[in-house]
Amino acid sequence: METMNWSEHQDIYTFIEDNWMGSNDYTLSSIIKESYNMEINPETIRNLRRKEGWIKNVSTSVESAHKFEKVVFVGDFHIPFHDYKLFELFIQFIKYFKPDKCYIIGDLLDCYSVSTFNKDPKRMGNLQTELDLAENIIGKIFKLCRDITFLEGNHENRITRHLRKNPELYGLDCLSIASLLRLADKDIKCHSYMNPPLKHHKFQVTHGNIVRKYSGWSAKGAYTKYAGNGIMGHSHRIGSFITRNTQGTWGWFENGCMCFLEAEYLDFTDWTQGWSVAYFTKGELFHLEQVPIIKHKFLFNGRMFSL
Asked: What are the distances in angstroms from CA 256 to CA 75, 203, 209, 234?
């Protein structure tokens, strides 16, 4: 076995001491040969590390993504003002991604005809048409993902508020959002807009009612309101807020939108089309990726998606 008098090669000793964490013994041996014109067996370097206690005592476990629960979050379609080409792209994506679960996180419908705001007669539509289009969209998603949860947004809540003005109709089960969209036919759970965020494990999911000036600020507002980790719609932006305190590291995310990027009540919108996906372990660990769509194109997992 090769022995070394390291006191005679203090420069090489120092080099190994400074670099052993970032390189293996074979790489260090090659660098030393090239830089110092001296051949040192990798085992000699390994023996030095053991002697000096420079040991990487780390157990690394790498698990493939298919071992985790895969979830997709999508929302803010605002039917009939949804971008139908974008929805085609979303269908293309979930055929590839194969999610275990899908959350539709509110404002699937716009409910323009029952809005209390001033309405453009040219945009006035039929509520039944919205419902038919929404049922069609849900059906296409359901063919690819059988576990769907539907969250009402503030626009679906327009129907509830409209019914409250007509107390003789308010409370009829047949006029609830779940009934109007026939969600029970597909065993789709429906979460009321007025309820607190629901939880996927400990990860919170809500449509939300917070809109701040810039992307990410609404996510910060949601963290301030709800704490923990979670995702929200409503802002039509993609953004995130990550923070750390004495209790841990936390993140809230804004989910983007599936509607067109023009609005009659704004000269210009800073909205971003897109959705989010997340991987969940059986514990509290998760990894969330936001998928912004630019001109009906996006990259995911090293692959280009486009129409």
From this structure: 8, 18, 14, 8
